[in-house]
Amino acid sequence: MLFPDLTICNFNPIRRSYVQGQSILNDYISKHPNFTVDEFYMEAGFDCSEVFKYCSIGGRVFDCCANAEPIRTNFGKCFTLKLQSSDKEWMHRQTEPGASAGIQIILDAHLEEQFGTNKPNDTTQPLFSNGFENGFRYFVHQKDSIPYLVANGISISPDTVAYTAITTNRYVLLPRESWGNCSDEYPQEYAQSDFPYSMANCQSICKAKYFTDNCGCTPSLYNIAETFPECSPFETYICIDQHLRTQTNDSVYYAAPDCSQCKLDCLSTTYQTSNSYGRGLSNGALYWLNRKNSNWSIDHMKENFGIVNIFFSEMTFTEYSQVQATSLTEILSDIGGNMGMFLGMSVITITELSMYFSKLLWIIISKKRREYLYKKKTKEQEHDKKIEEVVTEISLFRSRKEGTGSMSRLKGLVAQHQVQPTSPSELNIAQLAWTEAQQNQSSEIPEIITDDCNPRKMNGGVNVSS
């Protein structure tokens, strides 16, 4: 696992020996005509070699100051240890979990450099700076990001051993074009910045621009890009009091800049820490360190030395990825499914409805279309009438044809049976019935040939005798 950046600050931001003998600010400014707050803190703070006494990774010793960069924070002059920037590959990462394979740093608080130590040669008054305790504050953070030691830092006092176990979380968010809200680029008004984008960097530049627009300068804490004129502490106080402070009745409000245009990073890494402490350096450790450097007296180490152990508790990280809850394909599928289930609609139905309403609108708008449809309907009615007449004629023809066929069937039935001799009266009745049938049916009337009431063969070969 790659080591993160580590920023360490001394709670005492100013060395007493640097300003001793300069009783007032005007005296100091007269000796330093180009006075700025940044320059003052960087010169009055402790040097790297005064703070870092011993550094190792997995037991291998390395030079802390060769990989540390001074940085000014709200704690004054601090140092950021950037192990990933080292030219030695073994310093970039931890190879196994546990404190024995992590980073160990021994720090010197130099409490003798505080104001008001009550020592015989110290005539200064105690100075209340950033905290109630002595020692250091450190913060584990992502590479090339701003350390927020006030909110997320870890404190350690002299004669204490701290163990900081790290767990890594990585966040992958969606940009705006993928329905997300993150960004990898500065807003247009901050595009001139050369700093890598992060939400913290963007907000710092936003606040620096806000102060510059209202007061003509910005507090040095927000001038991370060093592109804005910096305010002195007095100018910062006047700016806030005259331009940003508003009072309503008994309440005082300070106008804060709106930096909502600074979005979350699309790719970020955070380090969660779990801390434990041990009080008091062992005698064996004190004598071992004294043998390392005879200038480190045991009394001085008991009063000033603190040991920080930073390590990965496990060689894994957790990644949180933001994904679209529903893709475009799924949305269309859901719409189609709901319409089909609750409305009985399909793509064909939607197409038909679209065509129907478009044609209806065409009829309403176009007069030619209405005339055309009227003529078409008239022709269709005439055509239907002709078809109906033809069908009627065909039906009549078929009914006549079916009647002829029934007469033929009648003659066939008669041919199949022998007719018993009939009396003259019965024969007359049959002739009357035959005559009536002949009048109703004109085609294919069978002939009855008689000779002196002795019937001959009829059609079909039927003999009739009287």
TrEMBL record:
GO molecular function, one term: ligand-gated sodium channel activity
The organism's taxonomic lineage, starting at the top: Eukaryota, Metazoa, Ecdysozoa, Nematoda, Chromadorea
Keywords: Glycoprotein, Ion channel, Ion transport, Membrane, Sodium, Sodium channel, Sodium transport, Transmembrane, Transmembrane helix, Transport
Name of this protein: Uncharacterized protein
Species this chain originates from: Diploscapter pachys
Membrane topology: Multi-pass membrane protein
Subcellular location: Membrane
GO cellular component: plasma membrane
Protein family per UniProt: Belongs to the amiloride-sensitive sodium channel (TC 1.A.6) family.
The keyword Transport appears for this protein: yes
Transmembrane residue ranges: 341-365
